[in-house]
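Reviewers asked in the last cycle whether our approach scales beyond single polypeptides. To address this, we selected a multi-component target totalling 626 residues and predicted its structure end to end. The input consisted of the following lines:
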Amino acid sequence: MKKKFSGYWATFEFLDDLCGAIKELRSSGYKEITTHSPCPRHEIDHSLGDPQSRVPFFTLIFGMVGTVTAYTMANWMSVDWVLPVSSKPLVTFIPYTVIAFELTVLMGAYGTIVGMLFLIYKGTRAKTFPISKEYKEYNRFLNDRFGLVVSCDKGDFTKVEMLLKKYSAEEVYNEG
Amino acid sequence: MSVLTYAKINDSVIASLEPPKYKWYLSMLIILSALGAGLFALGYQIMHGLEGSGITTPTFWGVYITDFVFWVGIAHAGTLISAVLFLTRAPFRTSIYRASEAMTVFAVITAGLFPLIHLGRIWNFYWFIPYPTQRMLWVNFKSPLLWDVFAVSTYMSVSIAFFLVGLVPDFASVRDHAKGAKKYFYGLMALGFRGTNIQWVHYMRGYLLFAALATPLVFSVHSIVSWDFAMSSIPGWHTTIFAPYFVAGAIFSGCAMVITIMIPMRAIFPGFGKIITVKHLEALAKMIIFTGGIVTYAYSIEFFIAYYSGSQYERALFWYRPFGELNGFFWLMVLCNCVGPIPLWRKKIRTNLVALFIISIVINIGMWLERFNIVVTSTAHDFIPFVWAGYTFQWVEIWVTVGSFAWFFMWFFMFVKLMPSLAIAELKEGLTPPLRHKCQHCLPASGSYR
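The resulting structure, written as structure tokens, was:
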């Protein structure tokens, strides 16, 4: 069974406050941190230690599958039903490169979507989140507020709350 | 002028999604009437065959193929703006890319219909696709027409996916402010997006890859469309310049269409004027000047090569275009595409929205005529003088063409009311973020950031 969330979530008006809080929480040993932001900001990534995405791996694999499928399909079909045109070779690669290019891009694009969805699902499942109504219904994370969710034991609640308030968190809630 | 903030961007875009007013319904009524007329004409053609089109011996390709190439061309600017300018980090892209991407999707959906309409026996369209028939007869992968099937369908799939992926964070923004059935709809489209760092990091990397994949696709699709012509041996078509010439023409016409759409849009929605600035439209006008130059060069070099090649058929065809019975279309094309953009060299004109709007429409007309000139004059005037013919427009193809514009605008009008027509998250990314300590050494300023 998935672990229940225990920790704090807070909202921030300013990006530098959020980044400061993340850095201090990380240096105090709190590693399970999730942020919310209205748009992607590299400052947040830098504060979180520059996490990398493995989406390109999916794109590459799917793209390669597309290339191989296209060449195989075109050559096999040309041999399966022989349609000789101007003595041109049946098994060939140059004219089929157009088909291969298109299928590489098509499969690569689908692979990117699959990779994105899979990695987001996997990354989200690996963490715990608050289950309170306030958190679930908070509607300014994609508008004009930054959010921070940090997991911690009950014993650390006071310390974490003080730290969040030190960085001018607007709203601070605990759970668990 | 008040400074843009994250909240102001949200408000402007969400306000554009409010229930439409009577002007929208009135426009939609006109659009649907035109679409109805187009569908009637198409229905007539399905019942009676291609007799209602101007297609005849030897002009087997007529207005439908012209429309196909025209709409594929229009589609190009959207991907160019969304993908190529994303990779090159062009600052004017953010405000216009969502609407141009929508334009791409709807234009390519429109374009995809024309090869089917042109077939006449529209119900046999699936013969294009390699599927196991009873006789195990496969398609010919060496034919440029089949390449085109793959190119256009890939382009359509990838541009729709790119468009929808780009919309996810913005759907989430709208969801957070919606109520009732709207909240459910936008929530479904947002796929649970809440702007967490896990979501952003994979999303942004995926988006970058999408842009990287879409970039060569932009150039390949119209190149492949041009090979439909260039791989044949018909005079006027069999030239190596076709691929770059078609791509430049596509960007030229696409940018013009973006301007045609953007200027009324920023006038209709009050908040958009601050976001889509004159500077952004001016940048598009500069792109028109550049691609217009390439198009003019291509027109000239085609004539030079016809002379220089020594081929009598090429020479005859290139004499026929400006001086034959269809010369009106040729000279009008030259006027619209080569002379039309010249006033844009003056800053005063390219920053004047009325002038820009008129020039963009002139270019759209010119680019339709360019495709008509390429498609029709070469087939009407090929190797056998005995069968040479002109071209007579018929009512069915005229109404199908009008219907295609209605079809395109129907989707666009629905888009502006159902989907965020400006990219909320990317516009915010372009702003200087809200900072308590305005320390420019700590965080980069807007513009230099991305």
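The first helix of chain A runs from residue 15 to 27. We regard this as preliminary and will revisit it once experimental data from Aim 1 are available.
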